[in-house]
Amino acid sequence: RWHSAYAGFRRDPIAPEIVDLYVWENARRQGVGHALLAVAEEACRARHYRRIGLAVDIVPDNAVARAFYARHGYTEDGSGAWWQGRVLDDVSKADPVACPVTLMLHKVLT
User: Fold this and answer.
1) Which residue of 7, 72, 104, 105 has the fewest C-beta atoms within 10 A of its own C-beta?
2) CA-based Rg of the chain, rounded to a whole angstrom?
3) E-state strands within 1-110
4) How far apart are the first and last CA of the chain?
């Protein structure tokens, strides 16, 4: 998504948002995710964006995805945890079954 709905990705410098990067389980650990991420990042560089962002849910099944993004240089954007479209000041107030808690990650493109 070139123009994110998330305000943090709309501030300067603007960051396009990767939405729903998913690799089928039987295709994991073969470089598919790395290749998809590289293409997305290069597309942003070609359009002169200086950073790129994405959201990742904080659920046990996403631990591998969070580690994958960290290995590729993505860090938390500093806004904290999000739940139902707003910053969550107390994670214990969230109902992760109804709506997962989310972290917004970004990467400065070089």
Assistant:
1) 7
2) 14
3) 17-18, 51-57, 75-83, 86-87, 102-108
4) 20
CB of 38 closer than 8 Å to CB of 44: no
In this predicted structure, what is the pLDDT of residue 47? 95
Nearest to 106 by CA among 64, 57, 53, 58: 53
Which residue in this structure is represented by tokens 């123009």? 3
Using the predicted structure, report yes or no on whether residue 76 has a pLDDT greater than 70.
Answer: yes
Total number of residues shown for the chain: 110
Q: State the pairing for strand pair 75-83/51-57.
A: unpaired
Q: Which two tokens stand for residue 49?
A: 């964006």
